[in-house]
């Protein structure tokens, strides 16, 4: 027959030893979180930018088949999507230079840079998705009629604003 008291004591001893060993082995460094935030800003912003460029380029290809004279006006979604990548670079450079200069960084500082990087990167990713979808559909519609151009530009501006909001919040968080 199994003695439950001995088993519970054994489990408690093992658990306590693991906790003691674990407390000595776990070293949380704020630099890890700071650099993950920097990488997130750059990676997610460039993902959004590249998706917006790729998706809008398909629409421009369709536009070129229908009316070649409208190609330069159709490049606006690509330019706006490209700006999203610059947002990520701005935050990565600012945060990276501040992290390198920090002598003693607290956990709060590490989480601050993580949050700033995620705010910029993920909002730029969302903006890139919106610009890609709206740019593709808008450019295809613009190939059919000139009347849609102003509406397309307004939609793209509001989509770009999402990425800009993330950039502004990230700058506020860093400073």
Q: What's the gist of this structure?
A:
This protein has 175 residues and is mainly alpha-helical. Helix content is 87%, strand content 0%. The protein has a single domain (30-174), classed as Four Helix Bundle (Hemerythrin (Met), subunit A), CATH 1.20.120.
Describe the structure.
The protein contains six helices and no strands. The protein is 87% helix and 0% strand. The longest helix is centred in the C-terminal third of the chain and has 38 residues, at 107-144. The protein is elongated, with a radius of gyration of 25 Å. It has one domain (30-174): lithium bound rotor ring of v- atpase (Four Helix Bundle (Hemerythrin (Met), subunit A), Up-down Bundle). By secondary structure, it is mainly alpha-helical.
């Amino acid at each position: 027959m199994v003695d439950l008291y001995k088993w519970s004591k054994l489990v408690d001893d093992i658990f306590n030893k693991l906790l003691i060993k674990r407390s000595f082995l776990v070293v949380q460094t704020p630099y890890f979180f700071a650099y993950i935030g920097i990488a997130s800003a750059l990676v997610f912003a460039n993902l959004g930018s590249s998706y917006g460029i790729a998706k809008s380029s398909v629409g421009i290809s369709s536009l070129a088949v229908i009316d070649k004279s409208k190609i330069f006006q159709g490049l606006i979604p690509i330019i706006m999507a490209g700006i999203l990548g610059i947002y990520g670079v701005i935050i990565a450079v600012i945060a990276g230079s501040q992290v390198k200069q920090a002598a003693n960084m607290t956990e709060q500082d590490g989480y601050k840079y993580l949050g700033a990087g995620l705010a910029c990167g993920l909002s730029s990713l969302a903006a890139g998705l919106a610009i890609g979808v709206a740019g593709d559909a808008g450019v295809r519609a613009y190939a059919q009629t000139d009347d849609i151009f102003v509406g397309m530009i307004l939609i793209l501006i509001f989509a770009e604003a999402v990425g800009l909001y993330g950039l502004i919040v990230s700058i506020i968080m860093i400073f």
